[in-house]
Amino acid sequence: MSTDTARRWVQSLAALVIAxxxxxxxxxxxxSSGTTESAGNAPTASATTxxxxxxxxxxxxxxxxxxxxxxxxxxxxxxxxxLTFNFAGSSDLVTQLTGGAPADxxxxxxxxxxxxxxxxxxxxxxxxxFATNVLEIATPPGNPANVKSFQDLGNASIKTVICAPxxxxxxxxxxxxxATGVTxxxxxxxxxxxxxxxxxxxxxADAGLVYVTDVKGAGTTVTGVPFPxxxxxxxxxxxxxxxxxxxxxxxxxxxxYVTGTDGQAILATAGFGKP
Length: 275
What we know:
44% helix, 10 strands, elongated, alpha/beta, 2 domains, D-Maltodextrin-Binding Protein, domain 2, 5-stranded mixed beta sheet
């Protein structure tokens, strides 16, 4: 091979090596660039932040045993959370809230009472209905006065205790009275359904109008007397975050729990109906 031929062969080989290097580098850059762009454009998986902290829940007296159990399960499922409950008649709770009492969540025994809080601009967002309830007659164990129907409560010889008209259970009682034409000569009107139940279970009254769930929760301390006219007054229970809540994320998490599968199962077991 001549010197010129060898020189040309070496130059050609060098050119091929350089070209191959350029192609390889370009491919590497392209691959690197593509990977970076893909990573940059890929949606970031945002992990759900677990709720923490403390909230104060104002709830209707008829929810006491159910929400206490529900709250215990919620806290077990969400370590680092604390729920503090304030149970009373719904109208009393509204009075407290409009008076400036601090709370994060309010659960009412009827929509009318929740409406008062909404009108006062003390509810954040739209209340969510989560349960229904109807009235039932409660008597002392064994039903000594032999109360058999709603009409029997119109007999003045039967000492009957009812809720005050401003309380949801009292409003429901008035609705049934109107529908049946029966006026109950009540010996007292109480500010909460638990007060009515207390007077019946202690024997101070022959009968009292409470909710189906109260009778079920009271066990053997009272005897229940269902009556068909109770369908005339079905109370719907709404729940909402209170305006100015200090822990909105936890408040919403609790509301979601109440309205979700676990909460609804607990409410159904207690005797509440679907919203």
